[in-house]
Amino acid sequence: MKPALIITMVACIAVLAVTALAGVQDSAQSMIARLQARAEAPPDPAVERLDLRGMTVPDRLFYMRATDHVRCVRSIADVTGDGRDEVIVGIDESQADNIFCLDGSSSGEATLVWSQHPISGVSNGSPYGDDSIVPISDPDGNGYQNILVGTAWGGRSAHNLDGLAGAILWTFDTYLEPPYTGGWVYSLAELNDITGDGVPEAVFGAGSDYNHVTMLDGDSTGAATAIWRYNAGDAVYTVRNIGDVNGDGDHDVLAAVGDDVDRLVCLDGGTTNPDGHVLWTYNPGASVYAAGVLPDITGDGINEALAVLWTMGGSAIRCVNGATGAFIWASTQVTDYGMMVDILEDVTGDGHDEVIVSSWENAVIVLNGFTGGQVWKTTVGTLNGGDVWTARAIDDLNADGFQDVVAGSFDTYAYAMDGTDGTMLWSYPTGYRVFSIYPVGDLNGDFTPEVVVGNQNQSGSLLEVVHVLDGSDIPVVPDFTLGATPGTVQICAGDSAEYTVTVGAISGFANPVGLAATGNPAGSTTAFIPNPVTPPGTSQFIIGDTAGAPGGSSTVTISGTATGSSGHTVDVTLDVVAPALPPTLIAPPDGAGGQPLRPVFEWSAAGGAASYALEVDDDPAFGSPAIVETGIVGTTFTPSTDLEADTDYSWRVRSENQCGAGPASTVFSFTTESAMPFADGFESGDTSAWSATVP
């Protein structure tokens, strides 16, 4: 591997806008011009941020240099084998490598895992915008995530890259489709398998002169195969997987169409119509720049749709019913052009997720997902306008049990904020406008995620434009964390259950933590080895003496206590499988005589039984059974061979489950019929049932 020092060959005129200028209509021209001017304006002189004095500055774990803008940053699961996520970077450079995978274990200047330069179109292209790189599942089945990439400029294509080494698996070149002028690919998404080949499909939206939503066969190789293409009539800035809206089992597509068309469209993912099929349309009366998917708030089990508008006055975010497109709510306090939305897990306690808003305003805004009302708003600096065009939810950074928010601003800072109230947790000065920010998995072993930040670079010089930050570098009260794996253990009564309890440290907490458990089955015992535990450390939690435990599930609460902490608990589940009850015998009845040589044995179903075992013997002690049959599914059995005639037999049945055979039933006995039957008509001369041998 080598340091990720990236020198571009040709500097392109960069625009952090939402469309190629070609084909833009008059109604949208002023917006495009303002967006271009806003993103590319000469930077304001730096000023001291007095409001950030005393604010925590997180550690930078590693960085990358480049000579052009970083349009998009993302993370993918480990490909180097060290268990850490890797960082994906998209650079706005169309004539050299522009997709980079950085080793998550880097320090200082990043170590490059691989780089790629997707070749397509009339003059090649590069990723453009904060939606142009999308990590997906593993369609090629090699055990590593793939990456969808959309390109602009002369490339105008959608690509699928293998995350392991960056190989291009397929490409869809919009120049090869009518009207053969191509379109900038702004946004891509993965759907479920619709064609039935076991491989998820992909969809992308493009602008310029292509102006289509296109669904691609995910199992393509080389040139990707289009399943359907929907003519949106204007630039498609965003596509999203909204889930199954129409109940056909196929995921559907949400698309934001802007410029002159200005609508949110829901498309049937599973349609066989090559031109696509519209399920519903929402026309907000303002230019639609982006879309989002909000988990169901109407109770119909279908996700809702979010429209992000270029409008002022407060209503830049609209929520509509995902099943019908009917209006649900509009924001009232998003006062400038909306740029994107992300979903924050419920912080208001109403059982519904919230909506994070990025906009032209110098603020991060969180809306109540159920009502659209403002939950909190945190302003940032005003340098370069202070626009926040990128903000994301991130897993809990400050150990309060809620997700938090990270955001990047034109004021050149990256921020972390408390998800519950917007309190600023840390700020990091990058020196340049922030175009993209994204959470990364835990890279330094502190049990919290990290953050990757991508910057603008107007200089053409080699600058540090990617920063990977320690997300948890936050002033918090020292404490410990408590976790247990696995969450559920199933045992047979009499066996022991074992769990691993992990005691983590926050801010160097090192006081011994005492462990205890409650809720285990009556009569069982618990033990922790060792106990106490000095964080960070682990203990084996054992539940024993379970022979008398009843079958069923128990929630066992593990508690940890230590000086300097209010204490913590974690729940695990113990499933005890008890021996199945014995069945009740039915036939042959006890003491019955004259039974057929192949009797039908019948018994009642027993609680906890998965199958049954039958024993039949002429010895009441069952020393040498004539029939031993196990695994009988059902409550009857007929032998395939005859029993002995005129013989006394005993029989019994045991219930079976995953823990083996349970106790035997009550023993019944019966006598088989004689081999020489008796006929009442003998005296009258009917000898048909008799035989004799004369010596």
Q: What can you tell me about this protein's structure?
A:
The protein has 695 residues and is an all-beta fold. It has five domains: 61-115 and 388-476, no CATH class; 118-283, Methylamine Dehydrogenase, Chain H; 297-375, Beta Barrel (Thrombin, subunit H), CATH 2.40.10; 479-577, Immunoglobulins (Immunoglobulin-like, Sandwich); 584-672, Sandwich (Immunoglobulin-like). It has one helix and 52 strands. The strands form twelve sheets. Strands 45, 47, 48, 50, 51 and 52 form a six-stranded mixed sheet that branches. It has a five-stranded antiparallel sheet with strand order 1-7-5-4-3, with no helix packed on it. A five-stranded mixed sheet has the order 6-2-35-34-33, with no helix packed on it. A hairpin with a 4-residue loop joins strand 30 (404-408) and strand 31 (413-417). The longest helix has 15 residues, at 26-40. The chain is globular and about 110 Å long. The termini are far apart. The model is unreliable at 1-32 and 681-685 (pLDDT under 50).
The stretches of 5 or more residues where confidence is low (pLDDT under 50) are 1-32, 681-685
Name the beta content range.
35-45%
| DSSP, total strands | 52
Q: The biggest beta sheet, please? A: 6 strands, mixed
Provide the number of structural domains. Answer: 5
Overall shape: it is globular
Compute the number of helices: 1
* SS content category: mainly beta
Compute the gyration radius: what is it?
35 Å
CATH architecture of the largest domain: 7 Propeller
CATH topology of the largest domain: Methylamine Dehydrogenase, Chain H
